[in-house]
Structure formats: structure tokens, C-alpha cells
Specification:
The protein has 344 residues and is α/β, with parallel strands linked by helices. It is built from twelve helices and ten strands. The strands form two sheets. The chain has a seven-stranded mixed β-sheet, sandwiched between helices. Bound molecules: pyridoxal-5'-phosphate (PLP). Pyridoxal-5'-phosphate is lined by residues 56-58, 82-83, 85-86, 124, 146, 148-149, 165, 167, 178. The site of pyridoxal-5'-phosphate has 14 residues, from helix 3 and helix 4.
Length: 344
């Protein structure tokens, strides 16, 4: 029997391993010069501002809220079609989450539905597709760009802060890790103060949310290949699109060559058709997933009426995601493409 192609898998090269070995040999394993180097890498990528490396993307979301002086009771809008990390960060900050429905075509938060009382909006660049940051700003909200699925694309410089994740299944990884950036450096400065509690002159509640130099060594090594990672992802994305030949819809908003596609998501007419395709890909040995299940939608977690979130509900019922990552061998890309051509 042929092996099932995993839905996701990190690519860890000999250079990454050498970078980690070098960090270990240096004897400096906690937050140190490599973390500082990674922050400088992000500053260079974004063409200015400041970055603060952290232990996770969730920590970065929390400290972005903290950095924007979000207080207890402030309303923070977020797409309901996203992972619960955002909800956790908002609760940690003592703020009030307000899930908003997304657009059916590109899965991003719809600015037209933004509640007026929202002080901050979390703009998730879903699977690499750009959320409408300018539209959200026009509605008077401060914007945190969630770039956890769009690193390597053009996003991250238009909002009041941006966050990134280096978890194992993300675009680049150090096992775990995160980063918050902002154009003025104010948010990064507040995050830098918060992430380290030891030996401080005056007391304020802080927490240990630091990244290690071991992680930073691996992430920096991967970061130096970001151009190649993006090119490989775009190539696989284009191959799948051609194999599909327009017989099913895909997530919109990823056509532009400047964007980094994080997932290849098919959107079917209805749930029965989606389930039929799930079976087809499983039978073809392709590791396929439902990117977000109904029960994971944030409005459901919060006990809100699903009737008010029709697009997210529909997406949960009609989408499936195929393997799209640089560790795929050419032969595996071929196999997925063949399965796409053979869609019943
Ligand atoms: C992964 C992810 C996060 C959380 O990052 P962690 O490093 O796992 O805490 C937040 N937002 C989005 C959109 C993500 O994909």
C-alpha cells in the first residue's frame, strides 16, 4: 500500500540542524543574541518599526493587545472563522471578544460587519489571503494583523501591530515561538517589558514569555530561506490549480504572485459534495483535512446564534484542505495533482 501523504510536515534542513548545534555549542541557550538577530530580521523584512520575539503566536496576540493599551471591558472584534488562540488572547487581556462573520470568497473578516463599539479588530490573513486592513481602519478600529499564516507575503506593515507564529506547522518553525511587531516600536517596547520579570526596579505584573536562542537559531535559519519557501509554495499552488481545472471553487484572494499560499482550500457547492471529495482524496492516499470544523467556529464556542454567522457556517460545511508545503517531494505533488484531475 502506498503511504498517505501527510497534510502537513515541517521542512528541517541540514543548515537548520547546524544552526541549532552552533547555538548549543555556544553555551548561550536562553534569550540572547540570536533572539535579537531574529528581531532585526523582522525589522528589515517590514522595512522599519520594531519586533519583539516571544514564546508563541498566542503570547504575541496577547502582548499586541497589551501594547495597544486594551483594558478590561474593551471590545475586540475578530473573525469567527479562525483558531481559538485569538479568543484566548482576548480573554487573557480581560477584553470582550466580538466574533464577526467572514466573507465567503476569501474567508477574511468583513469590515462591513464590524461592530461600532470595537476598539480593536484582529485582521487574520486567512491561509495567506489578505484581510482588508484599510477597510477596518476606516471603521475606526485599531488593527492587529494576524500574520501567522501569511509570513513571506506582503502583509504585516499596514496595521497598528502584527503577530507571527513559529509553531511546527507554520510557514517557518522553531518548534514553538512568536513575534509581535509594530511600526512605531511602542507595542514592541511594552511587550519587551512584559516578557521578562526578573531583576526589575519596580513591580508590575509580568510573565515569562521569552523565546530561547535555540529556537531563534532554527527560526533564523529558516527565515533566510523564506524566498525559496514562498516560491515552492506558489509552484505547488499553481500545479494544483491547473490540475483542478476550475471544476471546483477554491479560496479567493491568493492569485497575486506576491502572496504566500498557506493552504490549498477547495470550496464545494454543499456538504454532501465536500464529503464525497474527502472520501475521494482519502482513497487516493492524500492527507486531506477540514480546515475548521463547525464546532470550532468561535461564535459556537461562545454560545452565539449560528444564524448570525451564515458565511462561516457555510465554510465549515463546504471546505477541505490539501497538502501544501515545501517538504512535499515532486512525486507527492504529482500524486495530489492526479487525485485533483480524477475528482469524481
Ligand atoms: C497558529 C496561529 C495562531 C497561534 O499561534 P501559536 O504559536 O500556536 O500560539 C494564531 N493565529 C493564527 C491565525 C494561527 O494560525
Amino acid at each position: 500500500m502506498t503511504q498517505i501523504i501527510a497534510h502537513n510536515r515541517p521542512l528541517i534542513t541540514a543548515e537548520d540542524q547546524a544552526a541549532v548545534a552552533e547555538a548549543l555549542a555556544s553555551g548561550w541557550v536562553a534569550q540572547g543574541p540570536r533572539v535579537e538577530g531574529l528581531e532585526a530580521d523582522f525589522q528589515a523584512m517590514l522595512g522599519g518599526g520594531e519586533g519583539c520575539a516571544l514564546s508563541s503566536g498566542t503570547a504575541a496576540l496577547f502582548l499586541a493587545l497589551h501594547g495597544l493599551a486594551v483594558k478590561s471591558g474593551d471590545v475586540v472584534a475578530l473573525p469567527t472563522y479562525t483558531c481559538s488562540a485569538l479568543l484566548n488572547a482576548i480573554h487573557m487581556a480581560g477584553a470582550v471578544p466580538q466574533p464577526v462573520d467572514v466573507k465567503l470568497d476569501d474567508f477574511t473578516l468583513d469590515p462591513e460587519r464590524l461592530p461600532r463599539q470595537a476598539k480593536v479588530a484582529m485582521a487574520v490573513h486567512c491561509y495567506g489571503a489578505s484581510a482588508d486592513v484599510a477597510g477596518l481602519k476606516q471603521h475606526g478600529a485599531r488593527v492587529i494583523e494576524d500574520c501567522c499564516q501569511s509570513l513571506g507575503g506582503p502583509q504585516g506593515g499596514a496595521g497598528d501591530a502584527a503577530v507571527f507564529s513559529f509553531y511546527a506547522t507554520k510557514i517557518i518553525t522553531g518548534g514553538q515561538g512568536g513575534m509581535v511587531t509594530d511600526p512605531t516600536g511602542e507595542v514592541a517596547a511594552r511587550a519587551r517589558d512584559y516578557r521578562e520579570f526578573d531583576c526589575r526596579e519596580s513591580y508590575a505584573p509580568r510573565f515569562n514569555l521569552q523565546m530561547t536562542d535555540i529556537q531563534a537559531a532554527m527560526i533564523r535559519s529558516q527565515f533566510s530561506r523564506l524566498g525559496a519557501i514562498k516560491a515552492r509554495r506558489r509552484k505547488i499552488y499553481a500545479a494544483y490549480l491547473e490540475a483542478l481545472g476550475g471544476r471546483e471553487k477554491v479560496q479567493a484572494g491568493l492569485g497575486d504572485q506576491a502572496l504566500l499560499p498557506y493552504r490549498f482550500v477547495i470550496r464545494t457547492e454543499d456538504e454532501a459534495r465536500r464529503d464525497r471529495l474527502l472520501t475521494h482524496f482519502k482513497e487516493s492516499g492524500v492527507g486531506v483535512i477540514i480546515p475548521l470544523e463547525r464546532y470550532e467556529l468561535l461564535h459556537r464556542y461562545l454560545g452565539l446564534d449560528p444564524y448570525d454567522f451564515p458565511n462561516a457556517e457555510r465554510l465549515a460545511d463546504t471546505t477541505l484542505s490539501l497538502p501544501l508545503y515545501p517538504a512535499l517531494a515532486d512525486a507527492e505533488v504529482e500524486r495530489v495533482s492526479r487525485a485533483l484531475k480524477e475528482i469524481p
